[in-house]
């Protein structure tokens, strides 16, 4: 059964929704883990690295934490899959360089790219909102197995420029930035708590529930449910779904 929405734009979660969590955890996480040491020592003076290191110290409540202590904290957050903003910033630096060198190629479920093209051809704007940093998102969409998907995307949002994904205020901030009414904005995610926050902000929601993903057993928490993007029809509000 298809879900039908009248919406002007779609906002996409990545991990568990457009792409497999297993790929992120098995391929991307080890790639960043093995490079944090050199990033935090050899490149500590780079503004983005220095700023993220300060954010880690603040989160730890340890103003004097040195590079090995920061690396230890990052690795334990990786073990927990904690979506801490400085962890995501540092991963984004490492991953973008890996994608640019051709050492990484991103994964999208096979139903995703045809649906993105279909919705966009119908005049629907596409945005991304992920815990992964904007730099990581840009690299992810720019270096997929299906080619460069960035031309399909109108805007990228993360926990730095929008806020935490389980906070309704973040969705309000994105509505403000993209200039679309909340009631004509559809959020697709695998996590019920994110969908709840989006709905509180007045957005349309659909839970994407894919077998094998961590939130599959939990269900969508009462949000409309789709097993893949193939089962989601989006038409611009006013043009009839
Ligand atoms: C290109 S981002 C890589 C995935 C990632 O690190 C992440 O945290 C994604 O979380 P999401 O909010 O998309 O579920
Ligand atoms: Mg997700």
From TrEMBL:
Gene Ontology terms: biological process: L-methionine salvage from methylthioadenosine
Catalytic activity: 5-methylsulfanyl-2,3-dioxopentyl phosphate + H2O = 1,2-dihydroxy-5-(methylsulfanyl)pent-1-en-3-one + phosphate
SUPFAM superfamilies: HAD-like
EC number assigned by the record: 3.1.3.77
Keyword annotations from UniProtKB, A to Z: Amino-acid biosynthesis, Hydrolase, Magnesium, Metal-binding, Methionine biosynthesis
Enzyme class: hydrolase
Pathway recorded for this protein: Amino-acid biosynthesis; L-methionine biosynthesis via salvage pathway; L-methionine from S-methyl-5-thio-alpha-D-ribose 1-phosphate: step 4/6; Amino-acid biosynthesis; L-methionine biosynthesis via salvage pathway; L-methionine from S-methyl-5-thio-alpha-D-ribose 1-phosphate: step 3/6
CDD domains: HAD_EP (cd01629)
Molecular function, one GO term: 2-hydroxy-3-keto-5-methylthiopentenyl-1-phosphate phosphatase activity
Cofactor(s) needed for function: Mg(2+)
Entry note: cofactor: Binds 1 Mg(2+) ion per subunit.
Pfam families recorded: Hydrolase (PF00702)
Tree of life domain: Bacteria
Function: Bifunctional enzyme that catalyzes the enolization of 2,3-diketo-5-methylthiopentyl-1-phosphate (DK-MTP-1-P) into the intermediate 2-hydroxy-3-keto-5-methylthiopentenyl-1-phosphate (HK-MTPenyl-1-P), which is then dephosphorylated to form the acireductone 1,2-dihydroxy-3-keto-5-methylthiopentene (DHK-MTPene).
Protein name: Enolase-phosphatase E1
Provenance organism: Streptomyces telluris
């Amino acid at each position: 059964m298809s879900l039908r929405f009248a919406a002007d734009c779609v906002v996409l979660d990545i991990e568990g929704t457009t792409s497999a969590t297993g790929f992120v955890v098995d391929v991307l996480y080890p790639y960043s883990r093995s490079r944090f040491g050199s990033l935090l020592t050899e490149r500590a003076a780079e503004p983005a690295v220095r700023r993220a290191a300060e954010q880690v110290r603040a989160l730890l409540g340890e103003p004097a934490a040195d590079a090995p202590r920061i690396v230890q904290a990052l690795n334990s957050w990786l073990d927990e899959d904690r979506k801490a903003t400085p962890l995501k910033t540092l991963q984004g630096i490492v991953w973008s360089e890996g994608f640019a060198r051709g050492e990484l190629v991103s994964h999208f479920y096979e139903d995703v790219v045809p649906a993105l093209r279909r919705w966009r051809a119908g005049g629907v704007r596409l945005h991304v909102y992920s815990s992964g940093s904007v730099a990581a998102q840009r690299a992810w969409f720019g270096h997929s197995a299906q080619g460069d998907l960035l031309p399909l995307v109108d805007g990228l949002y993360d926990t730095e420029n929008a806020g935490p994904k389980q906070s309704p205020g973040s969705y309000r901030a994105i509505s403000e930035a993209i200039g679309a009414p909340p009631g004509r904005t559809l959020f697709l995610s695998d996590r019920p708590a994110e969908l709840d926050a989006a709905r509180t902000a007045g957005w349309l929601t659909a839970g994407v529930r894919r077998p094998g993903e961590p939130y599959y057993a939990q269900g969508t928490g009462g949000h409309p449910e789709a097993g893949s993007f193939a089962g989601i029809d989006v038409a611009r509000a006013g043009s009839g779904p």
